[in-house]
Design goal:
The protein is an all-alpha fold. The chain has a domain at 82-137. It is built from four helices and no strands. Helix 3 (82-94) packs antiparallel against helix 4. It starts with 23 loop residues before the first helix and ends with a helix. The relative contact order is 0.05.
Amino acid sequence: MTERVKTGQWAKGHSGNPGGRSGQTQAIRAKLAKGADAVAKKVLEAAKGGDMQACRLVMERLIPALKPTSDPVRFELDESDLPNAARSILRAVAAGELPPDQGKALIDALAAVSRVIEVEELQKALDQLRDQIEELKR
C-alpha cells in the first residue's frame, strides 16, 4: 500500500495509481489520430449539407469565442473605505464611464479584498484571545 504524508498528499515517489497508465492509452490515441481526417471530412460534408450541429461544431473550431475586452478606463475611485470604493465603481458604471464587465470585475476584486481583511482581523482577534488566555494562566 502506498504511503501518504500528514497533509494527506501522496508521499514523494508514490502514486495513488500504483499500476500507472495503461499501455493502451497511446494505442487508442494513435487509432483516433488515424481516423481524424475521415471524421473531419464527414463533419464538413454534413455541415455543407445543412446539418446545423455539424455547422456549429465546425464554426466553434474555426472561430474562437470572443471574449469581452475593453481599453483601460480612468474614473474617480473613492479609496476611503471599501463601501465607498464600491459606490464609486457603481456610479462610474451608471454614468457610462466604466463598462459593466469591468465594473463587475472591480466589485468582485473589492469583495476578495474584503474577505482578506476579514480573515486578517479574525486572526488578530484570535491572537489577542490567545494572549489573554496565556495571561490568565500565569
